[in-house]
């Protein structure tokens, strides 16, 4: 396995994880990559490592360019173990100090107490031969320790988790891959990783606007060397919760009643000319549902009552979404119950806690929806559509 040249003096030496299908609860049907980079010159610098099981792949790719022992410095842009997992091994081989942000040094010490580290400050520059490394703190993208590293001579920004995609592919650049898959995976990644930090995204875009950036070298997926305006505009749009007039209905059903409600609510929304899609959670993973929420102005969730609680798949979805806190969206809850309800009220509360605006009383139906109940569902959908259109 070889390293791949990104520009003169900078190589990709990461790992391709073709088979990962679950990335801390995020379903990754296309796998992912852990991107590490090697800058070679008067000083040889490794920017990040890879997840621990991929150590040999990293070393093999480095060896195709230089002897790993010749690495002088290591930069750790982010403490999460998919990027820092091999730091002790690389330090043992190279003796190189690991540069990280203040929070990065603190985090690394908690994972690896014996690691030799040095703090770099926001805006600090170090000259390495013919290249300058400038460090830019980007807290919460995606952890408090995160930072970008920028090479002004090349307009190359190592953007860490930002602008990434969980997309294992044999090509390294954005213009070499299927564009539909690329943007779908970039959106899914934003929805499942970056959403809670949208305010930080806007601040970071502002902070980076004066940098002359020609390449965004992310830590997952392909590297952006064209269409930088497009992906940064999409980040600004997603971070601003600027959504199209679209609704998504996410539900599960035990004996079919909540499913009937979901379809009738969808009919009511569509009758008002608003686009709507419907997902059943036993068929669709939570992270795929989150990707659809990213581009929906209304999120309508339905659950049956099971033992006085939400149906397990819906509870899972609701709590996952609450953690990701998609804001600036309308929410609504509905569902059916047998002899005692409770689930829909709980669902409404979790959705509200997650930051959704909940202007409607939850809609509940006992046992099987009759014609009158189905009409109520249709009208519920129409009301939601009118609210969407009013925004
Ligand atoms: Fe790819 Fe937040 O680590």
* CATH architecture descriptor name of the largest domain: 4-Layer Sandwich
| Average pLDDT metric | 97
In which order are the strands of the major sheet placed?
Answer: 1-2-7-8-9-10-11
Q: What percentage of the residues does DSSP assign to strands (E)?
A: 15-25%
Number of E-state strands: 23
| CATH-defined fold name of the largest domain | Metallo-beta-lactamase, Chain A
How many H/I helical runs? 12
The ligands bound in this entry are:
MU-OXO-diiron
Unreliable stretches covering 5 or more consecutive residues: none
C-alpha Rg, in Å? 24 Å
Number of domains: 2
Give the structural class.
alpha/beta
> What is the CATH class of the largest domain?
Alpha Beta
Please explain how this structure is put together.
The chain is α/β, with parallel strands linked by helices and about 400 residues long. The protein is about 35% helix and about 25% strand. It is built from 12 helices and 23 strands. Helix 8 crosses helix 12. The protein binds MU-OXO-diiron. MU-OXO-diiron binds next to helix 2.
Q: How would you briefly describe this protein structure?
A:
The protein contains twelve helices and 23 strands. The chain has helices at residues 55-63, 81-84, 87-94, 102-111, 179-194, 198-208, 228-239, 257-271, 286-294, 312-324, 343-353, 371-390; strands at residues 4-7, 10-12, 15-17, 22-23, 26-27, 32-34, 37-39, 45-47, 73-75, 97-100, 117-119, 125-128, 131-137, 147-151, 156-160, 215-218, 246-251, 275-280, 298-302, 305-306, 309-310, 330-337, 363-366.
């Amino acid at each position: 396995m070889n390293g791949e040249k990104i520009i003169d003096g900078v190589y990709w030496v990461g790992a391709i994880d073709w088979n990962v299908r679950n990335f801390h609860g995020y379903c990754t049907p296309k796998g992912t990559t852990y991107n590490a980079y090697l800058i070679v010159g008067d000083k040889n610098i490794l920017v990040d490592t890879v997840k621990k099981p991929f150590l040999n792949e990293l070393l093999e790719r480095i060896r195709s360019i230089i002897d790993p022992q010749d690495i002088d410095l290591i930069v750790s842009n982010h403490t999460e173990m998919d990027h820092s997992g091999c730091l002790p091994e690389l330090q043992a081989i190279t003796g190189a100090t690991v540069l990280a942000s203040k929070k990065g040094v603190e985090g690394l010490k908690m994972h690896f107490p014996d690691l030799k580290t040095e703090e770099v400050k926001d805006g600090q520059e170090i000259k390495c031969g013919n290249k300058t490394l400038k460090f830019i703190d980007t807290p919460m993208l995606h952890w408090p320790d995160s930072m970008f590293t920028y090479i002004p001579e090349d307009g190359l920004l190592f953007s860490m988790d930002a602008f990434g995609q969980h997309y294992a592919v044999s090509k390294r650049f954005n213009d070499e891959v299927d564009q539909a898959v690329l943007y779908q995976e970039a959106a899914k990644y934003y929805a499942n990783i970056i959403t809670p930090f949208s305010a930080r995204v806007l601040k970071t875009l502002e902070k980076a606007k004066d940098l002359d950036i020609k390449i965004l070298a992310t830590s997952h997926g392909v590297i952006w060397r064209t269409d930088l305006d497009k992906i940064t505009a999409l980040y600004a749009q997603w971070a601003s919760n600027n959504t199209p007039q679209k609704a998504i209905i996410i539900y599960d059903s035990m004996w079919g009643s909540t499913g009937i409600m979901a379809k009738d609510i969808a009919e009511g929304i569509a009758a008002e000319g608003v686009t709507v899609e419907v997902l059943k959670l036993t068929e669709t993973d939570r992270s795929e549902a989150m990707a659809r929420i990213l581009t929906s102005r209304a999120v309508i969730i339905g659950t049956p009552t099971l033992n006085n609680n939400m149906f397990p798949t819906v509870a899972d979805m609701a709590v996952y979404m609450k953690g990701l806190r998609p804001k600036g969206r309308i929410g609504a809850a509905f569902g059916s119950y047998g002899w005692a309800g409770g689930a829909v009220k709980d669902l409404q509360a979790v959705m509200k806690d997650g930051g959704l605006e909940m202007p409607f009383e939850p809609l509940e139906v006992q046992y099987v929806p009759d014609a009158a109940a189905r009409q109520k569902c249709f009208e519920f959908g129409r009301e939601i559509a009118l609210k969407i259109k009013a925004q």
